[in-house]
Design goal:
By secondary structure, the chain is α/β, with parallel strands linked by helices. It is 38% helix and 20% strand.
Length: 371
């Protein structure tokens, strides 16, 4: 299998004086490469700014990038390699199942890992001091999403789901949160159903909402097209709590069919001065509006740089400093705490919004609900 270049920064000829941070990012299929590109843009921008401000005690920060391609085994192997290369800490990863594999290796090796974007509650099997996370836990964000659905009159929902730990956890969170509030969740296994059969099941169950717990672009795009063009389902709301409609590829593939599909994103209603400045720089770097994932990348390096400046590059000291973090990020002040049921140090919480693309102007997002 061809392995793409590991780092766009000449990291294979390391600067001996540099403080190295390992970055795990999905840059090729079947990973969501577009999300990976935004995550990497945020990480790189923050590194550039840290270095422009003098680095870590006069030493430059060097990002050593590894493409996980949404493969847990590949990610675990990358953690082993980065640990051997002497990185001070790990950053990044978008896919929850991949981040879980990386977190397990980081925990076993005693390597600090600040996870940028993955939301799976059980990021590690046992509580660990080595891993911290910026993204809200799935149980937090998806309950807010369920409350939004109930508040807009949807109590009979179907989920189109693929088999994975992440999708199964999402379905369970929705079911457990909705059932005591009079909601029902019908599960449709997309391995066994064509998009047309999904439409038939929706009509048969008289569901008023269909939630996409599936991969992007497929089968998500095919299911959306089928539902949008089925006359029986004109009133059915399609939802995507995992955030597939956030990135421009969604609009490019679906056009008008991709609008009015509520999803979760982790941004405040209005960015403060730091967020606005970083957002403008990210837009220039990406050539398009930055997603929340790009801000997560920036904030990851901002936190790690603060910790490394304050505590040095000793890995155990870095891991021991998570509870002392108080960093102004692009989306608010970042502090880590222990949350019941979550095994890692957690920022509680990044801002949570339910948004959709405006049918009248699909490049514009409408904020529907905040949590």
């Amino acid at each position: 299998m061809h392995t793409p270049p590991s780092s766009p920064h000449g990291a294979e000829r390391p600067d001996a004086s540099a403080v190295r941070i390992g970055a795990l990012v999905p840059l090729t299929r079947p990973g969501w490469a577009e999300a990976g590109r935004h995550l990497l843009a945020g990480l790189e921008l923050a590194v550039r700014e840290v270095n422009a401000a003098g680095g870590i005690a006069g030493r430059p920060v060097e990002l050593v990038v590894r493409d996980t391609a949404a493969d847990p085994q590949r990610a675990a192997a990358a953690v082993d390699e980065l640990a051997r290369l002497g990185v001070a800490a790990l950053a990044g990863e978008y896919h929850s199942v991949v981040a879980r594999a990386a977190a397990a290796r980081a925990d076993a090796l005693g390597l600090p890992f600040l996870c940028s974007s993955a939301v799976l509650d059980a990021l590690t099997e046992q509580p660990t001091q080595w891993v911290a996370r910026l993204a809200p836990a799935q149980s937090h964000g998806w309950r807010i999403y369920a409350d939004f659905l109930l508040g807009t009159g949807h109590s009979r929902m179907a989920v189109a789901a693929e088999p994975s730990v992440y999708w199964a956890a999402g379905a369970r969170i929705l079911r457990d949160h909705l059932a005591p509030r009079g909601g029902t969740v019908i599960e449709l296994d997309v391995r066994a159903l064509t998009p047309t059969a999904v439409c038939d099941a929706l009509a048969g169950h008289r569901a008023t909402a269909l939630l996409l717990l599936v991969g992007h672009p497929e089968p998500a795009v095919s299911i959306v097209k089928a539902v949008r063009h089925d006359q029986r389902l004109a009133e059915v709301v399609i939802g995507a709590p995992a955030g597939q409609p956030e990135l421009p590829e969604w609009a490019a593939l679906l056009g008008d069919d991709g609008a009015a599909i509520p999803f979760l994103r982790y941004l405040p209603e209005r960015l403060g001065p730091l967020g606005a400045r970083v957002g403008a720089a990210l837009r220039e770097r990406l050539g398009e509006a930055p997603s929340f994932v790009a801000f997560e990348g920036y904030d990851t390096v901002a936190v790690l740089a603060d910790v490394l400046r304050s505590h040095g590059t000793d890995r155990a000291r870095t891991a021991g400093s998570w509870p002392d973090v108080a960093v102004e990020g692009t989306r608010g002040q970042i502090r880590f705490s222990r949350i019941p049921g979550i095994s890692v140090w957690q920022w509680a919480w990044a801002p949570v919004q339910v948004v959709d693309r405006d049918p009248a102007e699909p490049d514009r997002f409408r904020i529907l609900h905040t949590g």
